[in-house]
Known about the structure:
Low-confidence stretches: none
Number of strands: 11
CATH class of the largest domain: Alpha Beta
Bound molecules: the ligand Nc1nc2c(c(=O)[nH]1)N[C@@H](CN(C=O)c1ccc(C(=O)N[C@@H](CCC(=O)O)C(=O)O)cc1)CN2
Radius of gyration: 19 Å
Shape: globular
Mean pLDDT: 97
Structural class: alpha/beta
Distance between the termini: 36 Å
Amino acid sequence: MGTGAIIDGKAFAEGLRGRVAGAVAELVRDRGFKPGLAVVLVGEDPASQVYVRNKAKQTVEVGMHSVEHRLDADTSQETLLALIAELNADDAVDGILVQLPLPAQIDSQAVLDAIDPAKDVDGFHVVNAGRLATGGAALVPCTPLGCLLLLKDRLGDLSGLHAVVVGRSNIVGKPMAQLLLGANCTVTVAHSRTRDLAAVCRQADILVAAVGRPEMVRGDWIKPGATVIDVGINRVPAPDKGEGKTRLVGDVAFAEAAEVAGAITPVPGGVGPMTIAVLLRNTVEAACRRRGVPVPGM
Ligand SMILES: Nc1nc2c(c(=O)[nH]1)N[C@@H](CN(C=O)c1ccc(C(=O)N[C@@H](CCC(=O)O)C(=O)O)cc1)CN2
């Protein structure tokens, strides 16, 4: 088997942001409103600071209204809930995103469930999770929806394909499985306690790795020709680059896997950039649905 095709998430995300910008311009021109996104960061986690900065920057670049709230690491749950209540009541805000992870003193699910489900552009509210599971009109978590868009772009119709999702988090694994089921795949959800995980993965036509363990999925876990989507973003030491240097790797051992797979997402430049592009798309969708306006094609 030769080297698999590289799925360029960065390029796809750029195209999606262009289509979102077009949709925003159309809404401003024809409907007289500008979608707005509020992003809330609690604490100083360096990676979260970069993601929040990029979210605000890209929100403005596609022509939307951007609101940023940065709170101290020792912020109480009560203070955060009061801010969420304000944003729920603010008509200029169509989407609310609280950057995860949150500091230990805060109950994350309580905060996510305080967001108005109509403004829950992360799709983490239990109402949106329930709608996704039952085929309703949900706002869908950005990373798994980004993976689905990449898969459909690559494979077209996914009907009847066996998809194995490694990971069962509420944020990626479970919604990913629901989306693949909705696309008529046969879905297996595997995880760190699955017996003979390698053999389960080898059955996959589509393999989605979302376990958060650097390079756990090896080349010989992959069925020849399979499409591999690597959701992991792990920073690991890179002594070859110099003392104290690091590099990003996924949950899949990329070089080995690319030898066997039909197509594979790289890290960086695969799934990661899709997360923010889909967030912008979800914000347009939320803005239109709140006003009873048809959602422009994106
Ligand atoms: N409320 C949320 N919190 C978090 C989410 C989320 O969807 N909602 N996801 C992640 C972080 N995240 C966005 O918030 C995110 C992760 C990665 C990327 C990305 O573009 N990654 C690049 C590499 C970036 C780097 O150099 O570090 C890539 O993979 O190419 C964007 C957004 C957790 N929190």
